[in-house]
UniProtKB/TrEMBL annotation:
InterPro entries: PD-DEXK-like_domain (IPR053148), tRNA_endonuc-like_dom_sf (IPR011856), YhcG_C (IPR009362), YhcG_N (IPR041527). Pfam families: DUF1016_N, YhcG_C. This is PDDEXK nuclease domain-containing protein. Residues 8-93, 121-179 form the YhcG N-terminal domain. Residues 198-343 form the YhcG PDDEXK nuclease domain.
């Protein structure tokens, strides 16, 4: 009987979620249309700031108690419309769609790749891309991002990873875009087996309550205790398989740090932890673990394992030398236990792009 009752509750919850999604879609479309009207009137010189104030007062008189339609709210709607119909955004997004690999198409499609317009005059980017994200998240993206690339990054991640407002705020505050782009540039520099957009460098573990001087055991234990937050940082799609995972090679037992399975990539992902700066011998041990996983743990239909070596700092040149002849799918990434200023990461990304363009 309980099973049948639970089925009824599940149906109710599914219906509620669909209704909530529909309400959100209608609200976002409404804000987009109002933003379009205000933008046209202001840009053509028909309306000035005083007129927008009068419109806000008129709405309050005719729709008393309606929130979000004050002067500030109307200008946010104007910004919303202008941002997502700008030439920069539309051209950047079209380029993004062209460059989607097959794996990402499966994750993002159909919500993103099967686009339709609200009206013919509107950008084809608008529906259903932006209507899948609630207004609060849109406001965060609009206020805390600059480039079209950055906006698209967070829009796509909101859709695919279903970020709440709090989760999105953390991603923005921890500069997830810059960290992912830094990782992508280094991946593209010689590790084609690693899919772009999946990993970050550095990883930020500001949620760990551990001292600056900590052991590898302390770090591992803290990550396991805060597993939900750790998975949010590394990205959804990971299924936790355990820590100190036992591998038997010959007559010896070896124990890995943190082992996951990634559902979309269909492969094992191993995180090895080091509390000091990267040394070349770390990579040898990681490659050994990946070989053992592929021979003895990986199933025949699964893809080769990926390894992420988390270090407390690294010399980029040493990493390049160490990775030059490596055939394994591996990433050497930093980790930090405190937030890094976004400006610092943006500067690093700019420097890396310049250096790669000169080579």
């Amino acid at each position: 009987m309980n099973t049948e009752f639970k089925q009824v509750v599940l149906l109710i919850e599914e219906s509620r979620n669909r209704a909530f999604q529909k309400v959100n879609e209608e609200l976002v479309i409404l804000y987009f249309k109002i933003g379009n009207l205000v933008s046209d009137k202001v840009s053509n010189g028909v309306w000035g700031e005083k007129t927008v104030d009068e419109l806000a007062d008129f709405i309050q008189e005719n729709c008393p108690g309606l929130k979000g339609f004050n002067r500030r709210g109307l200008y946010r709607m104007k910004q919303f419309y202008e941002t997502y119909t700008s030439h920069e955004f539309v051209s950047t997004f079209n380029l993004y769609l062209q460059n989607l690999d097959n794996q990402l198409v499966k994750i993002v499609s159909p919500p993103v790749t099967q686009l339709s317009a609200i009206e013919n005059k509107y950008s084809q980017i608008v529906t259903p891309l932006v209507t899948q994200i609630n207004w609060a998240n849109h406001l965060l993206i609009l206020s805390k991002t600059k480039s079209a690339e950055e906006k698209i990054f967070y829009l796509i991640n909101c859709i695919t990873q279903k970020f709440s407002k709090r989760e999105l705020e953390r991603q923005l505050n921890s500069a997830a875009f810059e960290r992912t782009m830094l990782s992508n540039k280094r991946v593209a520099d010689g590790q084609s087996k690693i899919p772009e957009g999946l990993f970050k460098d550095p990883y930020i573990f500001e949620f760990l309550d551990i001292p600056d001087t900590h052991s590898e055991k302390d770090l591992e234990k803290a990550l396991v205790i805060n597993l939900q937050k750790f998975i949010l940082e590394i990205g959804k799609g990971f299924t936790y398989m355990g820590n100190q995972f036992r591998l038997q090679v010959g007559n010896k037992d070896y124990f890995t740090d943190l082992l996951f399975y990634h559902r979309d990539l269909q492969c094992l992902v191993l995180f090895e932890l080091k509390i000091k700066e990267f040394e070349p011998e770390f990579l040898g041990k990681l490659n050994f673990y990946l070989e053992a996983l592929d021979r003895d743990v990986k199933r025949t239909f699964e893809n080769p394992s990926i390894g992420i070596l988390l270090c407390k700092g690294k010399d980029t040149e040493v990493v390049e030398y160490a990775m030059a002849r490596s055939t394994s799918a591996a990433i050497i990434a930093d980790y930090e236990t405190k937030l890094i200023p976004k400006s610092v990461l943006a500067k690093k990304l700019h420097q890396l792009v310049e250096r790669l363009s000169q080579n």
